[in-house]
Write a structure and sequence with these properties.
The chain has 2 domains: 120 residues, DNA Polymerase III, Chain A, domain 2; 116 residues, DNA Polymerase III, subunit A, domain 2 (DNA Polymerase III, Chain A, domain 2, Roll), CATH 3.10.150.10. It starts with a strand and ends in a 9-residue tail after the last strand. By secondary structure, it is mainly β. The longest helix is centred in the N-terminal third of the chain and has 13 residues. The chain has 4 helices and 18 strands.
Length: 252
């Protein structure tokens, strides 16, 4: 059984609005220590994950691992509809063997709560979110990343080259470089003289553009060419974007 509660304003609905821009279908995974919503993008391949720890919720209870597939479009539009109807909070519950989860919306007054059911199904696959190497990272301002995303929004991906002093984004014949010398980024875990090559997707650009954290963090993954971009949304919430090793194709 899962029961969690949160307000229909602030970080929670905004995070859901970002996730629904990536894909129509999502995967709901909940354990006693973590709530997550995952979206799998096939082309270009990437895994987007919203993660929230129990401390984020005013009420959180989960007795075991729950893993189901659902329409994140329906989930998001239900939240938008009930916010328009002036409901102020939602309690989400899911029980084992049920083919739906229930969303109970509470108004600020003594009006009766309203319940909506979102159909679920067994997950079609197990998603690899990637294992992060936190020792190797690049951090940069959201401002720089938004310029990159909007300037290159017609391209599916960018090639990356990282040294201990700069990160270079290359899309066709356009090159964007952020350096530590100009204080445009912070780099750690890359040895002097080493050069690491990888790639990341830039679409859907609306997904990336709507991040709100002041800084983003790009980490190496333990697969040789994989990368994970993390956008914090508070102390207990972040969105990660995993680009696996097979996403990278040498740019000859």
């Amino acid at each position: 059984m899962v029961i969690l509660e949160h307000a229909l304003f602030g970080t929670f609905p905004h995070a859901i609005s970002i996730m629904h821009r990536a894909e129509h279908t999502a995967f709901f995974k909940c354990s006693p220590t973590l709530f997550s919503i995952m979206v799998l993008q096939i082309r270009p391949y990437a895994v987007f994950t919203l993660k929230m720890t129990p401390e984020f919720f005013p009420q959180y209870a989960c007795d075991q691992l729950h893993y189901v597939q659902f329409s994140i479009d329906d989930f998001y539009m239900t939240i938008v509809e009930q916010r328009t109807n002036r409901f102020s909070s939602v309690t989400l519950s899911i029980a084992e063997h049920q083919r739906h989860f229930a969303m109970e919306f509470s108004p600020p007054s003594l009006v009766h709560p309203r319940t909506k059911l979102i159909p679920t199904s067994p997950p079609e696959r197990d998603i690899n979110e990637g294992a992060i190497d936190y020792a190797s990272f690049v951090s940069f301002d959201l401002f720089h990343f938004r310029r990159l995303v909007t300037g290159l929004e017609n391209n599916e991906h960018a090639y990356l080259t990282i040294t201990n002093s700069q990160i270079k984004f290359l899309v066709e014949d356009v090159e964007v470089v952020l350096t530590t010398q100009r204080k445009e980024c912070i780099i750690g875990g890359f040895a002097a003289g080493d050069e690491f090559e990888s790639a990341m997707c830039l679409c859907p650009w609306e997904f990336f553009y709507n991040f709100t954290s002041e800084r983003l963090w790009l980490f190496k993954s333990y697969d040789p060419k994989g990368m994970t971009l993390i956008a914090p949304m508070g102390l207990y919430v972040h969105i990660s974007s995993y680009f696996p090793e097979d996403f990278y194709v040498p740019n000859f």
